[in-house]
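Q: Hi! First time doing this. I have a protein sequence and I read that you can turn it into a structure. Is that right? Here it is:
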Amino acid sequence: MKYLSLENTRLDGRYDIHALLGRGSYAEIYVARDVLASPQSAHYFVVIKALNVFLQNDLDLDLERTLVENFQNEAIALDRVRHPNVISRVGHGTARDLRGTVFHYLALEYLPGGDLAKLCRQRSLSLGEALNYLEQVCAGLDYAHRHDIIHRDIKPQNLLLTEDQKTVKIADFGVARITQTDSPITRVGTNIYAPPEHSPMLSGQTGLLTSPKLTPAADIYSLAKTAYVLITGESPRFFANQPITELPFALRQEPWGGELVKVLEKATQADSAKRHPNVIEFWQDLSRLVPFTEINEVLTQVSATAVNTIPQPHVSKGYTPLAPQKPRFETSRNLKLKNNLPGIRLAPPVEKINTQTNFNPGVIQNAGTEVDPQHQTEATPSPSSNSNPPKGRFLRRTAAFSLLLTLFAGALFGTQYFIRNAINFPQVSNPFAAETGIANTDINLRIDPSVNNDPIGLVTKNSKLKIISKKDNWFEIDIIEQGRPHTNPDGITHGWVYGPLVDLEEN
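A: Yes, that's right. Below is the predicted 3D structure, encoded as structure tokens:
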């Protein structure tokens, strides 16, 4: 077993790894600080999910290929279901750790409020709190199903909370299925939450189902088992791979108890064709409990008009529907052909590349210039000398000029080749067709294209920017209009920002 060496390092010159959150079968989870993001940004802290194919000692090429494909599919699934109640991907990359081990990673939004399983262990949720969380999960899950993504591992541990614990987001799409594929159904999920069609405990018994295809009803089964936990505060272990037919004794006398059992029993039928066909119908049945929710510790009947028949999302700070660039991950066999993978350092040194040269194109003005007759020396032939006829002198001068021009052209080509391949000359945009963009989050304004300096100002989210030039992943900008009222020190409106945090506009 080989763990990655990442703690207390800076990944890709951008993410400062702070602590290990946990390890799974093939991935390691870290919390990190994005040094390119403003401290006011919702994504100042992120989660780094690092794929470590070497966590298992029996790795073979086929298994590695499957793991890399699943990792990329997770990124694709997250981008396809950008939704306020689904965890967002904010970046990705491939790098080497301190030991030289190559790994892929996803950068995800950090949700410090814990998960619903932990919250239920800490205290009992009121019926109103549980239904509020379930409505948000239904909204996110319905959006995923409408975009052909089946999660396949819905459970309280995969439902994460924002810091204020008001917003819940679906996480861990590592085993998600794109429903357009017809490949065999694999056995995944957690035993007490997984439906019979892909439960690890029922391998080989899928034949008892009338439908051989994986459908959204698989997630509805898991969601119903999750609802049992949130509302009752107890695990559905007694009903593993069975329909829920009753509530814990303490809740059986609740006025809403009988209605809840009907909803959960239908949603957890062994035959997927007998469950709710979609999340909307499941929520509509479950929302019948809303009139019984507690308001100010008093059991109150809520008017029917206050019940949302369509589950509504809850939007938290920092959400954007725009997805980052799509990743393309490769296996280690393909990566061995590449030697330019970024690494990480314990203390990244200040690296400033000098792109300036001493080459002066103006020297061509002194090449092949005719000598002033008033400044001739004795060794200089006179223009009227018979040994130096005008035609011969003209030919010699022409030949000399051609030679100098050829040498200069060669030097110019050599200098250009050196600059392109060794100095990495910055790309400069055409000033006559300047681009514009919109900041998709708060961004630090810097004096040069580097994080190794203190910010000189702040570009607020939704600010309109004029792109002056580009260097690597950095933009030199002028702030046309701030996204919200904000005054930079000394009225500074010009500087450099990190390019991926700016959405370019089409001219």
